[in-house]
Amino acid sequence: MKKDLVKILETAIQAMGVSALPQIDVEIPKSGAHGHVATTLAMGLAKALRKPPRQIAEDIVAAIKDNPQFEKVEIAGPGFINITFTSSYLHASLLQLLDGDTSMLRVDTGRGRRALVEFVSANPTGPLHIGHARGAAVGNALCNLLQESGFSVEREFYINDAGRQVLLLGESVFARYMHLCGFEGYTFPEEGYRGDYIEDIARAFREKEGDHHSQVVNEEGPQKGIQAAREFAYRKMLDLIRKDLDLFKVKPYDRWVSEKSLYDRGEVAGAISFLKDKGALYEKDGALWFRSTGYTDDKDRVVIKSDGANTYFASDIAYHKDKLDRGYDIIIDIWGADHHGYIPRIESVMRAFGYDSSRFRVILVQMVNLLKHGEPFQMSKRAGTFVTLSDVVDLVGADTTKFIFLTRKSDSHLDFDIDVVTAQSAENPVYYVQYANARINSILANAREKGLETNRFGGVDLSPLSAPEEMEIIRKLLSYPMVLEGAARSYEPHHITFYLQQLAGIFHPYYHKYKVVGDDPALTAARLALCAGIQKVLHDALTILGVTAPKRM
RNA sequence: GCGCCUGUAGCUCAGUCGGAUAGAGCAACUGCCUUCUAAGCAGUGGGUCAGGGGUUCGAUUCCCUUCAGGCGCGCCA
Asked: Which end of chain A has fewer beta carbons closer than 10 Å to its terminal beta carbon, N or C?
């Protein structure tokens, strides 16, 4: 719908002597009185052409109005051009949508560009919780969306396995292990992880290793044991994270990048010496600093501490250099919003390496404000009081949870009240959408039982579709590629969620008012085609969001 | 104190790079299952778009400012 229109408009304004083609915005007017689609093209051209917008609009209208696809072309207000399509054009377009594969629904926004999306990247020190779930839902949907919009997408998980946190994990597990072995006086680390899962791991560790680590502590110290516990626990945690993501139906990652391996392969040292050669590093107070104020940051940042240890930032430099070196056109990081202060320094790193920081894009996912009975529910991984992703999936379901996350802009605060979400689960918007899909499935099954065709619509005459509701549905279906395009351009999958609710919202009333499978064979065939079209789009959009489209409910 | 995000119906949130009469779900109330699935439909009520300035043909959208909430400002991760 948009593609056809843009082509016509471009031809028209080229003929008017506009050489530099602007991006042509096409919008669906809120009010039905303003046609099927509208463009502000004439208003946009007013400055360049130095003519009043209405006059430009008149010229454009004169050039396009005889096109057979248009029923009506009108100028309104300050220079809107409102266009009404003919029914036969809409019918023909629907037929194309039905006949073609999904490429009919796609806009090539990516044009083959390579995108790397890093998301979740939780510390391997505990199970995933509700906040990770939001990042996972957004990341997963965004990857699908970009993939379907002509990007070549790679999904990546960064594992912080080199820092203090995994060490603490090892110490915590080891302490529990010591207790299990009978050494109850062994001190548990001050800031150690206290969840039940630590005890489970300690038990498994003891099953595998026996008690011998505990027996040598007095002579050799705990170091070897802690080391072993750390390795063991860390692998268990990664398995757990994989399992949780799998449970949440997040598409598998293409790559898991270990922070430790960046050190082992010398990439951290390499990145640092590269920056040193460029003069982006300097020493002060015994530490090594990155001159990020030379770029967009408001403070310089320490890379190597005065005690000789690398900061977290050091490996992040190496990691992002590695991403750049791998040649992606777009590098997307999905972070919790509490890390937003980190953006300028990573941008600075990119520029220090000589890359345009506009290739780098951070999508901030706001914190999930977890509530129970309307009261804040404080989560702490260390204290062991938190609601895990797997709890939520058990309680609420993966589809519902994802859909809730995807009906919000990722950077808006979000209340997730366990009670409300659970209680309302039967009336959650996701069911409204899925129900439409299931209903259509029943209709088609019913038709098949009567020996009607429900798969191929090549030669079907759609002209019996003439009710206002039917024409509205057709236009809605034809606007789907516009929605995908807008969502992909802005990296905001939530637009798709809203579109789905709207589409379902016009289908259900239609279903009640009209009988699809009826006495009139021509009308029945046309309505079956319409339903198949709706189902095609519903299924496609739900799949992109990572939500299932059940056939019966 | 500085920086970022947020403030839209009772609640949770949309609002398409400035567009026409600001929307949805939930909650409340009233009706509808001998007819392809009632997780549905029809209807009712609900708004100084936090407040105040500015920019222009036109502002929920852009700029300034005030207020409120969240987050961040470490040789922590």
From this structure: C
Take residue A233 and report the two structure tokens written for it.
Answer: 């626990």
In sequence order, which ranges of A326-383 are alpha helices (DSSP H)? 343-352
ipTM above 0.90, yes or no: yes
Please give the order of strands across the beta sheet that includes A114-118: A255-258, A152-159, A114-118, A330-336, A360-365
Residues A268/A262, Cβ–Cβ less than 8 Å: yes
Helix (H) or strand (E) holding A42: helix A41-49
What does the alpha-carbon distance between residue A137 and residue A358 come to, in Å, rounded to a whole number? 24
- Provide, in whole angstroms, the distance separating residue A325's CA from nucleotide B24's C1': 45
Residue A72 Cβ < 7 Å to strand B = no
Asked if residue A285 keeps its beta carbon closer than 7 A to nucleic acid strand B, the reply is yes
Query: Does strand B come within 7 Å of the CB of A454?
Result: no
The 10s digit of each residue's pLDDT in A235-262 is 999 999 999 999 999 999 999 999 999 9
pLDDT attached to residue A382 = 55
Percent of chain A with pLDDT over 70: 97
Domain A2-85 has CATH 3.40.50.2000: no
Between A172 and A368, name the one with better pLDDT.
A172
The Cα A511–Cα A508 span in angstroms is 5
Please give the torsion angle defined by the CA atoms of residues A102, A103, A107 and A108, in that order, rounded to the nearest 10 degrees. 130
